[in-house]
């Protein structure tokens, strides 16, 4: 694979996450869709000053988006970023605040 592929841009931990999620959603979504979702969730956190929690945040956000994709009647329509007020809102808000804190510049 070339240097410009998604796999080359992801650290090993996130590549393992991508592989695990691809296997989990094998019957529902293509591997390319899963890789794109993981990459999209990783991108805003790629320059985090404290990288310890980045894989956890990426996994949580990726699973949330993948579940949304699977439940939608039109999987090609863009996903909403804001919470829909359902269960898990406080966790989503806390993770969003943590992501902002991790990505703030010095």
Automatic annotation (TrEMBL):
<protein>
    <submittedName>
        <fullName>Uncharacterized protein</fullName>
    </submittedName>
</protein>
């Amino acid at each position: 694979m070339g240097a410009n592929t998604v796999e080359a841009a992801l650290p090993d931990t996130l590549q393992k996450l991508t592989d695990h999620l691809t296997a989990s959603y094998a019957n529902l979504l293509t591997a390319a869709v899963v890789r794109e979702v993981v990459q999209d969730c990783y991108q805003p956190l790629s320059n985090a000053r404290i990288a310890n929690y980045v894989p956890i945040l990426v996994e949580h956000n990726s699973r949330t988006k993948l579940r949304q994709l699977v439940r939608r009647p039109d999987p090609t329509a863009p996903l909403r970023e804001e919470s829909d007020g359902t269960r898990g809102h406080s966790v989503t808000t806390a993770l969003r605040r943590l992501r902002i804190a991790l990505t703030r510049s010095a």
